[in-house]
Write a structure and sequence with these properties.
The complex is a heterodimer. Chain A is mainly beta. Helices cover 11% and strands 35% of the residues of chain A. The chains are: A mainly beta, B alpha+beta. The interface between A and B is medium-sized, with 27 and 28 residues.
Chain lengths: 194, 546
């Protein structure tokens, strides 16, 4: 309280001191930002199969790791590369190129042919690895950039319901896969018994 | 269900009665052969154990009488007390009294032990063979009118393992029956198979329960080990044990024994500082080591903590860079967990400078693999200057199977022992090409033999199981398996060892491939495929027919 007091009567001083407080609300800044028509974003992990780019939503990917030593399992379908030990968990490694009969493309000259990457996909009650040859990339893009898959795709090897959509980024076309559908029950039943 | 305490009491009584029986037997022998040192030593040992056990559980009268008898026998052993008739009578009375006390531990009406007898024991102990003080006659104890057998039996772990294996087999058949009943849609069969399901489940848990032991049975070995290691390292260590009564599968405890021993040794050798160093740092002279067990839902959590120097993360990063496990830029950005994970890299630890600096590491990968192999988890926390804690989360119970390990075409396989009949090494000339298979004569029995590499890896169209030219080398290692009373010899590339393995079932989408019963992790961290003998046999038969 910066008020001068002539009398020593403190009761009066306190009563008079009240109006000395500055009035609030003088600065006229707006707290509400002007909302630009923001689209919902989706985070994808992009990888290459053959010559094309594919992607999986990041929520379906548990981790990306350099592929550890794989133990081959004789007499299993060709797209099962084998099993591997990732931190004590034994998971199957799948080769989607073989699975979808995609013709493998030659590696870029700067890639190490001895190193592959594994995307660990988390399904409901188990994990599975997807092996890719080039380092997967991470990509953020608005949901609106993903188109629903055109219907004629059902005729090709990757059945339509595995494809969530097609994303177009600049000159690239990215096929967004729904891994959970790929790993669905009917697929598992396609594994022949020895 | 009985409480844990009651269970302990029962075990104590059963053991004590066994000791009592042995004491009676030995003292009778001793009476006839007073110079038999071995018998004397045995009596001494029995009394000593009885004293310790009864004291631990709180039966002080028993421990008191055992103590008096132990003293008397130690005098006899040192030839300070003659094994005279008078003394023998008192000792027999004493042992009878022990029996009485043991049988009546639960009886509140049981009074104090006979004071006259106690006095007699004191007299022979204190006055040695000087018999100036009259021993007082005591009323003869006659407790053994009723002979009784113990409520507890000892059982070999092997027998329990066998039971567990049989339960595993039973469960496989049970599941088969359930699926057949689903296929057939017969109501009666469905109700029987669901009953079978419940019974086998109960059976499984009973057998698993019978395999549980107290963690204390391992923990209690550590005070002595810690003392010895500390003495050798000139360190002062106080070991604190908690949770000894937590129960865990005996084989899991067996598998982690070496790991725990290793970690404890490491903690004393490298973790804890010498007394002078500790004082300089303002710590107590005595280092503290804490071994703790606690139940954690379905699992058991084992923790080993020390209050030593902790692990220097920067030194670990530096070594990781030196060993080219990671680049310098990446190493600098690693967090604590990522940095510590280098310690579990094979061979990382053996670098001398790491053990000196970080104080940890020799064979931590081995510890990690052991824990992995039983489906457990190993984690580590450390703070520089404050200490280190290793935590092991272990399953309480697990099916451990004996299996034979081998290699075919660079891949490790295991076959459960339950399916193996014998292992033989035969010269190539003893194998004969008959039709499209190989056969051999084993002790008068004709056995079909198949080259596993050909069966597993040859393109199916080009599979030639009866072609000897496909074999490598002259001498063939053959595992003879039997299934449905049919024998089949499997030629393998390299035969390893017999080992207890924990079979991890394959997860989707591989679970439906029945050639593999599952996988197991070897001590090396390598994945080993567990071959399913029934499926393998079926596959072989189908091949021949196809």
């Amino acid at each position: 309280m910066a008020k001068q007091t002539k009398n020593t009567s403190s009761d009066k001083d306190q009563a008079e001191g009240k109006p000395a407080v500055a009035e609030p609300g003088e600065n006229g800044q707006t707290t509400v930002a002007p909302a630009p028509q923001k689209d919902e974003m989706v985070h994808l992990i992009v990888f290459k199969l053959g010559a094309e780019y594919y992607a999986i939503k990041i929520e379906q990917v548990k981790e990306v790791t350099i592929t550890p030593a794989i133990t081959r399992m004789p007499r299993t379908p060709g797209f099962i590369k084998g099993v591997t030990n990732i931190r004590g968990d034994i998971i199957a490694i799948m080769d989607l190129e073989t699975r979808f009969q995609i013709r493998p493309a030659s590696l870029p000259p700067d890639a190490n042919p001895n190193v592959t990457y594994t995307l660990v996909i988390e399904a409901k009650d188990y994990s599975i690895g997807v092996e890719v040859r080039e380092m997967p990339q991470s990509l953020n893009l608005p949901v609106s950039r993903i188109d629903r898959a055109p219907s004629f795709l059902q005729d090709i090897n990757i059945q339509e319901n595995f494809i969530e959509g097609i994303a177009k980024i600049e000159d690239r076309l990215i096929i967004v896969l729904d891994m959970h559908r790929i790993l669905s029950q009917e697929e598992i039943n396609q594994l022949p018994n020895a | 269900m009985k409480s844990r305490e009651e269970e302990y009491k029962e075990i104590f009584i059963a053991e004590a009665l066994e000791y009592f029986d042995s004491l009676n037997r030995h003292i009778s022998t001793l009476e006839k052969q007073p110079d038999d040192d071995q018998t004397l030593a045995e009596i001494f040992r029995l009394l000593h154990n009885l004293k310790a056990n009864s004291k631990a559980i709180g039966y002080l009268q028993i421990s008191d009488v055992s103590h008096k008898l132990e003293t008397a026998f130690s005098l006899i052993r040192n030839k300070e007390l003659a094994f005279s008739d008078e003394v023998v009578a008192v000792l027999f009375d004493g042992i009878d009294m022990l029996g009485e006390l043991i049988q009546n531990v639960d009886n509140p009406d049981q009074g104090e032990p006979d004071p006259i007898l106690l006095r007699n024991l004191d007299i022979i102990v204190e006055n040695l063979s000087d018999s100036t003080i009259e021993l007082t006659k005591v009323q003869k104890y006659n407790t053994s009118k009723n002979l009784s057998l113990s409520e507890l039996i000892y059982i070999q772990i092997k027998k329990l393992d066998h039971m567990m294996n049989l339960v595993g087999e039973l469960m496989i058949d049970r599941d088969r029956i359930i699926s057949i009943s689903k296929e057939l849609g017969n109501d009666e069969l469905a109700s029987v198979s669901s009953h079978l399901y419940r019974i086998t489940e109960d059976l499984q848990y009973s057998v698993m329960g019978a395999r549980l032991v107290n963690i204390g049975s391992l923990f209690n070995k550590f005070p002595r080990i810690v003392r010895d290691v500390a003495a050798a390292e000139k360190k002062e260590v106080n070991l604190e044990l908690t949770g000894q009564d937590i129960q865990i599968d005996r084989n899991i405890l067996q598998i982690i024994t070496d790991s725990l021993l290793h970690l404890v040794r490491n903690a004393i050798t490298h973790g804890l500082e010498r007394p002078e160093e500790r004082e300089k740092k303002g710590k107590s002279r005595v280092g503290h080591l804490r071994l703790r067990a606690q139940s954690d839902r379905e699992n058991v959590l084992l923790e080993l903590s020390d209050d030593g120097r902790g692990i220097d993360l920067r030194k670990v990063q530096k070594t990781a860079v030196e060993r080219k496990l990671v680049t310098e830029e990446v190493a600098a950005g690693l967090d604590e967990t990522e940095t510590l994970s280098f310690l579990f890299e094979p061979g990382f630890s053996t670098a001398k400078e790491v053990t000196e600096y970080s104080g940890r590491g020799v064979g931590l990968d081995v510890v990690k693999n052991a824990i992995d192999s039983i489906g457990g988890r190993l984690t580590l926390e450390t703070e520089k200057g404050k200490g280190t804690t290793f935590s092991m989360l272990l399953p309480t119970s697990i099916a451990v199977k004996g299996a034979l390990l081998f290699e075919v075409n660079g891949i490790f396989y295991a076959i459960p022992l339950i399916h193996t009949d014998q292992v033989v090494a035969l010269d190539k000339d003893e194998l004969h090409e008959v039709g499209d298979v190989l056969i051999t004569d084993l002790k008068g029995e004709t056995v079909t033999v198949v080259y596993l590499h050909e069966l597993l890896n040859a393109p199916e169209a080009d599979m030639r199981l009866g072609d000897k030219t496909r074999l490598k080398g002259q001498v063939q290692n053959i595992i003879v398996v039997s299934y449905n009373n049919r024998k089949l010899g499997l030629i393998v590339d390299k035969l390893y060892r017999q080992q207890d393995i924990v079979v991890k079932p394959l997860s989707k989408p591989l679970e439906s491939i029945d050639l593999y019963g599952g996988v197991t992790l070897l001590g090396t961290g390598k994945v080993c495929l567990v071959l399913d003998v029934p499926a393998l046999t079926r596959y072989f038969i189908n091949r021949r027919q196809g």
